[in-house]
Amino acid sequence: MAAAAAGAGSGPWAAQEKQFPPALLSFFIYNPRFGPREGQEENKILFYHPNEVEKNEKIRNVGLCEAIVQFTRTFSPSKPAKSLHTQKNRQFFNEPEENFWMVMVVRNPIIEKQSKDGKPVIEYQEEELLDKVYSSVLRQCYSMYKLFNGTFLKAMEDGGVKLLKERLEKFFHRYLQTLHLQSCDLLDIFGGISFFPLDKMTYLKIQSFINRMEESLNIVKYTAFLYNDQLIWSGLEQDDMRILYKYLTTSLFPRHIEPELAGRDSPIRAEMPGNLQHYGRFLTGPLNLNDPDAKCRFPKIFVNTDDTYEELHLIVYKTELRPSSYTQSEASISASVHPTLDFCRRLDSIVGPQLTVLASDICEQFNINKRMSGSEKEPQFKFIYFNHMNLAEKSTVHMRKTPSVSLTSVHPDLMKILGDINSDFTRVDEDEEIIVKAMSDYWVVGKKSDRRELYVILNQKNANLIEVNEEVKKLCATQFNNIFFLD
Amino acid sequence: MHPGGGPSRAERLELGLGRERPAKAIFLHRRPGEGGGRERCLRCGHVCVRRGPGPREAVPSGRPRPDTLTPPWVRQRAVTGTFCASWTPLRNRRAQRMATDMQRKRSSECLDGTLTPSDGQSMERAESPTPGMAQGMEPGAGQEGAMFVHARSYEDLTESEDGAASGDSHKEGTRGPPPLPTDMRQISQDFSELSTQLTGVARDLQEEMLPGSSEDWLEPPGAVGRPATEPPREGTTEGDEEDATEAWRLHQKHVFVLSEAGKPVYSRYGSEEALSSTMGVMVALVSFLEADKNAIRSIHADGYKVVFVRRSPLVLVAVARTRQSAQELAQELLYIYYQILSLLTGAQLSHIFQQKQNYDLRRLLSGSERITDNLLQLMARDPSFLMGAARCLPLAAAVRDTVSASLQQARARSLVFSILLARNQLVALVRRKDQFLHPIDLHLLFNLISSSSSFREGEAWTPVCLPKFNAAGFFHAHISYLEPDTDLCLLLVSTDREDFFAVSDCRRRFQERLRKRGAHLALREALRTPYYSVAQVGIPDLRHFLYKSKSSGLFTSPEIEAPYTSEEEQERLLGLYQYLHSRAHNASRPLKTIYYTGPNENLLAWVTGAFELYMCYSPLGTKASAVSAIHKLMRWIRKEEDRLFILTPLTY
Hints:
The complex is a heterodimer.
Chain A: E1 17-20, E2 23-30, E3 45-49, H1 55-73, E4 81-86, E5 89-97, E6 100-107, E7 110-114, E8 120-124, H2 131-149, H3 152-175, H4 186-190, H5 200-216, E9 220-227, E10 230-234, H6 238-262, E11 281-282, E12 300-303, E13 310-320, E14 328-335, H7 341-374, E15 381-387, E16 393-395, E17 398-401, E18 406-408, H8 412-426, E19 432-438, E20 443-449, E21 452-458, H9 465-479
Chain B: E1 29-30, E2 41-42, H1 72-79, H2 87-92, H3 94-111, H4 154-175, H5 184-201, H6 205-209, H7 238-249, E3 253-259, E4 264-267, H8 276-291, E5 296-301, E6 304-311, E7 314-320, H9 326-344, H10 346-355, H11 362-365, H12 369-381, H13 383-387, E8 390-391, H14 397-409, E9 415-422, E10 425-431, H15 439-450, E11 460-464, E12 475-481, E13 488-494, H16 500-516, H17 519-528, E14 542-549, E15 554-556, H18 567-584, E16 591-597, E17 602-607, E18 611-617, H19 623-644, E19 650-651
């Protein structure tokens, strides 16, 4: 029960019971076609983490996955296994490209108890991990790889197995360290995008700003506009935006927040040429535009890999309204040709000042929104909303996102109940509603309607079913008044 | 009052659930009486393997009766008593040992005070129960204690077993499969080769253990007992084969049983032979993970699950497209496992495989597939299994008391349980003092009876193991229908294989008493309406419900009516109950209340310490009406409880 396993049992009650959260045991990528004959099994393995594992052990583990997949094809040739549950761990399988398999093995959470004779007894908690959550995490691993490296097949075409292995090694070596498996939850399943609600006028202003910019900077292919980690406008395809959003909000932005908070008086903007005072700067690319030797290195990204397969450069430019505030707007721009320092200067001069103005407009909106929602007292409920059609997601359960953990304000068990309800919803297409009362007496409500899902956790332990229903109705009326939910 | 109240587990009464169980193939069902033309072999279409006269002949009257009562190879042992010294005492002392077991059972029962339902059910019983209601107070709670060992459904099925399983896997480490090939493909290849070889050279256990007598054994014809249904890999043209394979794949639920050596024991669809390589892979997966001191549980894919249950020396696998959780599927597999134990006893099963690891168990079980098939079918339709409880035939309390009393008086020295049932519903159950039946055992008995119509033909006397009671030995069950044209079936469970006549006499006395008191007419009348309609409750939107009293181990539910008239609809409704049940009883995140609104109906589940209630309403009903319906329904059940439940179970 005790929330998230204080660092492997150094807590006050470590004497009786230690808890260990789920952990990544191994992660590997293989292609069965690459080592079809006996004695060549090692060739199948394209990436294996942890790399220190002995060769035969790797081959054995890959062999098990192949066997599981092959075995399930007996029963459904086109839909082989997605996951394997064992007493100690769970393995998740994903075949993102034909014959390329990605496997993630996660150890079940453990409770270590002291038996009467003083020996530690290990108990695996087999029902704690939610399949859908970790399958989504695994799929995300591929999407993220693909965003920065393109498809496996492309690497094979460009430089054969050797190049593919290099790319996989380079990417996953670091990326796997950023997986925080103990704090994965429903939001990982949705992989949604938080949108910033905006009035029409401001929205149009932003759109025309983007149009003008794309016109004057013709190497710009796509633009996305975010404010405070929330998306306002995107020219990218939904799936590409979804993973880019994930990267920006959980990796790139947080990395830049911390240094800023630390050294507010950084000299970046000190010698601004001209009188256009603004606080824009590049999050990717040159740190200092006035340094002629500044390196213009932008990460490459790959979008539309299913058809046009575009290779682009990711430029992220950010401005802050006031240097001390958190409010910020970011434009993420994708360019087709490699941007030069000169281009960066032009972009800075065009985008910087305008973005600052826009940011102030948006900030006004932001404050209005805040006043409206803040006028009520602390609500008795928390909710998560997701719309499958536009990927819009909204959560009052999660307090903040950091690069490492997403903090939730509710008990992990309740989050798992949400996950259970979500997986029940997936099994049928029809609209459904489920209201449950947990052992802790919290009420949890799940509604699915027209490809939208809403989950509510109510903190009124003594409420009855009818009151809970009323409460949720009220919530729907205030937050989602234009969405029909099954009553 | 309740937990820890009584000095002993007063509530553990055995009950007779009338659940259909298929007749076990390997047992000879035959009337023991030798004279007066009664001597007839009640064959149920199973293969009866035995020594001496061919299976289809009548038994010569001079034949020692015990031979007819035990599975063939057991009988062998008794006949050739000197052959296997270690076994002989085992058989001879069976009765004694059973008595000791009961003794032991009794004392162990006392230790577990927590499950004890209160002895003092005399306390006031609330009209409309609340969640805080204590066990023993809820509607349907027995007045004088329960009849069953307490089963808390799923949890009960697993707890002790897991210990056993880990012990087994430990053993596996030392003497199990030889060094692991590095590649799984290799393993599965090896296994398919192995199984081909084995079918070639298979020698029966009996043959080996009883040299010289092997020519007396009839090789059980492979497919007797049930038609070979759609073998997946047979077919004349390729197209046919494709179709057949596709049809085979699409079955809702496959069940496979195999031995640790990968030998097929049972397959629900398709012949075991055709599937031997698939089964080889299954067992390879199991042992592969065990080599890592791990255990395979399940595989999940879009639209189906594969669930593994390991009960040494067997491996059971289900492939299901139903909505059931892996937990529930594992529970069903355990039922299959117990079903096999009930035919063989656990002791014999492990003995066989100790003697010969790659023994082909189908030799012993052939003919029993029908019982297993029937069990699987029953589990898909009958909520008794889900509830882990028995349903009673609705009967006026006075009539039931008369029946129970008559049953109680018709006792014999060796009787442990007397059970009267009608179409898988319990009418009355009398047990020996301090002996309790487990609902699983009762379900297995019900399945045995319902899977064979041959029991209607006279008195049957068959050995049966009640695995939850004691997996080491056989009881002997006397099974007979009271009157040929009714569904009333009497089941008398005895410890003594020799006691047929005494037990048969109990039946006669019971019937006499019933007639004398006129209860047989009332019973007959009651059998005309074996189910009640939900309309009697008087809640317009209510379509169906299940209510279980935890302390008595009994549940009640009305007939399933429109719109659930077709078989598919009925299974869908049960599927919804299963879904709610699995969420409510989730091992790590149990729930107290669930209200589910779907496109076709609304359902509510409410689980408390004392009872479980599942209701199904019209989709038009509101939550407010549902809440008020709960109270109305609970009051109705309280009012009707003496008709719907057995409140005063008796002991001899």
